[in-house]
Design brief:
The chain is an alpha+beta fold and about 130 residues long. Helices cover about 45% and strands about 25% of the residues. It is rod-shaped and about 95 Å long.
Length: about 130
Amino acid sequence: MVRRTHGPDSERLEDDPPDAQRGGATVLVLAIGLVFLVVGTFGAAVAAAQLADQRAAVAADLGALAGAAHPLDGEVMACAFAGDVASRNAGRMVGCRLDGLDVLVTVEVAFTPLPGLTRAATSTARAGLVRG
């Protein structure tokens, strides 16, 4: 006995069991989409960390160069110039000292690789007067 109905199962006999794999492709596509989402999020977090590391290095380098122009004015003035330049480059100076005529500057840049997770990239740079 064949019963005609409307819909996707209209050709199925009444006594046939339903197809066990119906909807399997939907689950597979959702699983693949979830994998892409996780990999993409991880990639974005790694890129954010690398970008923050580069920003910290640039801010430290430029801060050290700014401080190296003023070593004869003393550590306070040299570090003030270094801190100003570091902050203008999105960094926060966490350390500064004179080593002879060289200035050592440590800068930290905060970043958020994932929502609710804040980390800091740190870089140290040294600059000084040219010695002949």
